[in-house]
């Protein structure tokens, strides 16, 4: 269901002018239809989770009834997806192709199919968050039927221009594949919180991998479920 500018302002408890400001300066996803802004609920939740913006939790009831399993944490999802160092590529397609190599995805979704799903999401707005970090993922998570959420951290050999809000080229990808919309959004929220942690930020700058990174993420103690 699409939402109007007035409805979105109520959800975020701010003025309509503030919402327009976020569209222009904070990459809030919106579409212009007959000179009116229209918004998709899932896109708003994704943006809010990453931007750490509070909102009316009633919006969840309109997206997906599935909740994140109690034992799901970002570090667990990252252990399933793994960490790659020095991922290369001449452009975003090459980088994503190398990033998903070996990822345990269902046979029903081929390598090229997953790349197209990831590129389709980038076509409606960059998944770059700033500070050299991007979170590529399918626009509709349920199109990739995986039993458990997976996150793959990729340190790139060369920075990649991805229209980051701060203009900094991306050199770290958190590739995210989730079985439900809720799990995707809640893991995004957890990632957003962890990226505010100094020890996590330093580990990313140092390209820490393996068990040491999993330990740092768990010790950060900032994982939460957006409510």
Automatic annotation (TrEMBL):
Organism for this UniProt entry: Novipirellula aureliae
Protein name: Nitrogen regulatory protein
Assigned EC number: 2.7.1.-
Root EC class: transferase
Keyword annotations of the record: Transferase
UniProt cross-references to PROSITE patterns, sorted A to Z: PTS_EIIA_TYPE_2
Domain PTS EIIA type-2 per the UniProt entry, residue ranges: 76-220
A Pfam entry, by short name: PTS_EIIA_2
SUPFAM superfamilies in UniProt: Phoshotransferase/anion transport protein
InterPro entries per the UniProt record, alphabetical: HTH_17, PTrfase/Anion_transptr, PTS_EIIA_type-2_dom, PTS_SugarTrans_NitroReg
GO molecular function list: protein kinase activator activity; transferase activity
Gene (UniProt): ptsN
């Amino acid at each position: 269901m699409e939402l109007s500018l007035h409805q979105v302002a109520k959800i975020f408890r701010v003025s309509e002018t503030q919402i327009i400001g976020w569209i222009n300066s904070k990459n809030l996803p919106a579409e212009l239809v007959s000179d009116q802004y229209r918004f998709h609920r899932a896109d708003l939740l994704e943006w809010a989770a990453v931007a750490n913006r509070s909102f009316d939790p009633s919006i969840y009831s309109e997206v997906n009834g599935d909740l994140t399993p109690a034992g799901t944490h970002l570090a667990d999802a990252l252990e399933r997806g793994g960490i790659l160092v020095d991922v290369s590529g001449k452009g975003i397609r090459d980088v994503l192709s190398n990033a998903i190599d070996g990822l345990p995805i269902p046979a029903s979704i081929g390598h090229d199919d997953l790349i197209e799903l990831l590129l389709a999401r980038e076509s409606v707005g960059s998944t770059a968050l700033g500070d050299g970090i991007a979170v590529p993922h399918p626009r509709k998570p349920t199109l990739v039927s995986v039993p458990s959420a997976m996150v793959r951290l990729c340190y790139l050999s060369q920075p990649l221009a991805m229209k980051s809000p701060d203009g900094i080229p991306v050199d770290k990808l958190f590739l995210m594949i989730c079985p439900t919309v809720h799990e995707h959004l809640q893991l995004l929220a957890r990632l957003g919180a962890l990226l505010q942690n100094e020890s996590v930020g330093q580990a990313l700058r140092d390209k820490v991998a393996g068990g040491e990174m999993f330990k740092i993420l768990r010790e950060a103690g900032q994982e939460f479920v957006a409510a």
